[in-house]
Amino acid sequence: MTISWIDWVIVLITILVCFVPALFLAKRSGSSTTEFFASGRSVPWWLAGLSMVATTFSSDTPNWVTEQVRRYGVAGNWQWWAFVLTGIATVFFFARLWRRSGVLTDLEFYELRYSGKEASLVRGFRAVYLGLFFNCFIMGMVTLAACKIANILFGLSPWQTILLTGVLNVVFAAHSGLWGVLVIDMIQFFIKMTAVFAAAWFSLVEVGRRLGNDANGWLGLKLLVERLSTLQVVQGAGDAQPVMSTQNGTGQPILDMMPNFSMSDLALMIFILPIAISWWANWYPGAEPGGGSYIAQRMLASKSEKDSLGGTLFFNIAHYVLRPWPWIITALCSIIVYPDLASIKAAFPTADPTLIGHDSAFPAMLKFLPVGFVGLMIGGLLAANSSTILTHLNWGSSYLVHDFYRRFVRKDAPDSHYVNAGRVSTVVLYVFAALLSLTMSSAQQAFQVLLSIGAGTGLLYIARWFWWRVSAWCEIVAMVVSLVTSLAVPRLMPGADFATTTIVQVGITTLAWLITAFVGPQTDRATLLSFVRKVKPAGPGWTAQRAEAGISDREVAEENRIGTSMIGWVSGCVVIWSSLFAIGNFLYASGDPSRVADAWILTGVFAVSGLVLLSVTRKLWAASEG
To answer: Which of 268, 325, 507, 595 suits a disulfide with 588, CB 3.0-4.6 Å?
Structure first.
């Protein structure tokens, strides 16, 4: 890629605009651990929501989406679209509960909800397990994407990319705390969205030039849809590459937003498993059943229950509606420009061949950006990388310092000591993540590893809010069994695909912790009653405890409004899916007029469900204020 001085000026301006404001927040963030890790619990809903969106828009996200589209067609995105169910459930059932709990981190919740040494054991173990291992694994995925992008665009080696991005991220994460992360996220969100829209547009311009001899984006969209509407993708067996061919029913139509159900193995993996099981059964940061990780961190940092609910709702709508189509359009264009891996390698002969995969097609499309937009995209990619890495450094540091070091190693030091410990831990976390990134090969591989390790634990994280029998031992058993099965099941079932092994893992892990709930040691009565008085959880699973604690059913009903929340959950999911698919059909209509009717029907569904969602949200906001 040729980069002009204008582009470098834009990159510099982008970095300054993103990071300089955070410099002024260091004094406030360093005043206490509450400020450093939770922004003093005073974050408004719009800032919390923007930060969640920016954090989940990392440098690996467009790469991963591109790989799904090239391997499984647009329908491959159901692997993450299904988690709409999880995200909206968090909005209406868990956001207010998290804020009501008053804990600083979601791991502190364990000693609020459970009792005995086992509660402390779970908190301490998960502080290291999630804060170090899981957290660094996710940062490794993001760093791997940055390495692939930098190698394609600039010919940088992985170590050069790691050093360049690492210095920037570590310095600011250690300096500004969560307040700095939130402000940086807010600015970066707008830069990143502008950059990916530019990438999609100029990808269409290139398609127009290639297919219609006219560098026109609207013509490119029309020709793109016309060309791809007749094609299907057939996934090769094992490590074989997917093959494009004319539609004949034996493959997945590229543009279809639903899977070809006659291909049972494909439909099981990309749609049936996610929509039927994964959203409630698998733990994955950013889409955790019951809420958790950095999403819980933002909810806990919100200044009220209302802000917690509003921020999480805004995040889910922006996450699933605003962001996907620019990535998808760029991915579809890449099929025209780079129909296979060999064409990517031919276009970038100096790139490291070991780093080139289908997820490399997204950065490969960026070579068609004109002067000025190249600098914007480089700045946007830096922003995408930083917003995610900064959050994970702060979030992981909060676990290691607040939930492990402060809780079990040194309990009586001044707050300034723990803030400094948090700053040191950010450096350690990034070093581990950088080393781990060098062992990965693709975003899809890392995504499946994370889902596999957390398979079967998700239902537990929902049930603990509604059923007193869920204990710390249930959590211990679930963690151990899910980890063991993630290693053992693929070896015991060597011919099984990922979907099948995941279903087996979910079944074994869920059965194990359910048995523990009935036969294992129980949480002591005093802890359960204290939890009920503080959080006021709903559901029949707490009936006896509420009665003993003197909490009336009417008070719990007014606090939680489960019926209203259920309507909000359903309408929220419909709003997101209908608007997401309406946008897609309007885009497709440029080359396939038959899509117009579907687009308007979906728009009508969106309007009706949107009115219901707005009404429900207003009621819950009013209840939170009251």
So the answer is: 595
CA angle 332, 338, 344 (to 5 degrees): 130
Cβ neighbors of 240 (< 8 A, separation 6 or more) are none
- The helix-helix angle for 135-154 and 373-398 (nearest 10°) equals 160
Q: What is the largest CA-CA distance in the chain?
A: 77
Helical ranges in 302-442 per DSSP H: 305-317, 324-337, 341-347, 361-365, 373-398, 415-437
The predicted-structure confidence for 39-90, as pLDDT tens digits, reads as follows 666 788 888 888 888 777 776 788 889 999 999 999 999 999 999 999 899 8
Are 84 and 72 contacting, i.e. CB atoms less than 8 angstroms apart? no
Q: Which amino acid is at 107?
A: L
Interval 230-239: pLDDT, tens? 999 987 665 6
Question: What is the C-alpha to C-alpha distance for residues 282 and 450, in angstroms, rounded to an integer?
Answer: 9
Tokens of 166: 């690492």
Q: Are strands 252-253 and 231-234 parallel, antiparallel or unpaired?
A: antiparallel
Q: Cα 152–153–156 angle (5° rounding)?
A: 75
Nearest to 294 by CA among 125, 64, 139, 93: 139
| pLDDT of residue 133 exceeding 90 | no
Cα radius of gyration rounded to whole Å, the chain: 24
SS3 143: helix
Instruction: Identify the H or E element spanning 298.
Output: helix 293-301
CB 203 within 8 A of CB 362: no
Q: Which regions of 214-286 does DSSP assign to beta strands (E)?
A: 231-234, 243-246, 252-253
Q: Which residues of 354-381 are buried (b: 16+ CB within 10 A; e: fewer)?
A: ebbbbbbbbbbbbbbbeeebbbbbbbbb
